[in-house]
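Q: I'm a student working through a structural biology exercise. My instructor gave each of us a protein and asked us to get a predicted structure, then write a short paragraph describing it. Mine is Hypoxanthine phosphoribosyltransferase. I'm not confident about reading structure output yet, so if you can add a plain explanation after the tokens, that would really help. Here is the sequence I was given:
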Amino acid sequence: ECCRQEEVPVQNSGGRGIMDDWPGYDLNLFTYPQHYYGDLEYVLIPHGIIVDRIERLAKDIMKDIGYSDIMVLCVLKGGYKFCADLVEHLKNISRNSDRFVSMKVDFIRLKSYRNDQSMGEMQIIGGDDLSTLAGKDVVGTGRTMKALLSNIEKYKPNMVKVASLLVKRTPRSDGFRPDYAGFEIPNLFVVGYALDYNEYFRDLNHICVINEHGKEKYRV
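A: Happy to help. First, here is the predicted structure for Hypoxanthine phosphoribosyltransferase. I'll explain a few features afterward.
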């Protein structure tokens, strides 16, 4: 079966949760930038599985809110690849449907990590005037949306939905769940697919677990 693709083992979370004891994929099975050799433990989610999952999220979003124009609010920097791929799939669905859905994209940056530790306080950097969200259907994408939601709501958008590629199982979780989630993962610090460690690893296509050598090498 040359075209068979092995699925990431999951536990009971809607068929998308990666088990705590999942050992991941051996790095030797994949290509990745040579400058990260020795800095990673294993591949948690290969790029192909990420892309397939995002396509399904796009279909779910269009099924739910594809009857109206959409404003996509992308959380930079970690959310840019997820947002770009999601928007492309949304546009493809719109192009092949009997009703055109207008989509606009805006950007905001949140900074919450220094090295591999959350700083607690959320820094909001950049972004245009959020008053443009008034009366719009908003799909927010990124890792850390709760800090933005109360700020967005005061501009009275018609609807707000949150899409996140990853949901981490962690004791520090405040219980917030996005409306659309790609994968639920163990409490691991992951990099790749635009997720960084002090600005490194954004050029890694797969989502991987960084090792202690990598953390020390790129620590600030």
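A: Here are two points you could use in your paragraph. The helical segments are 47-65, 80-95, 146-153, 212-217. The two ends are 46 Å apart (CA to CA). It's a good idea to check both against the output above yourself.
Q: Great, thank you!
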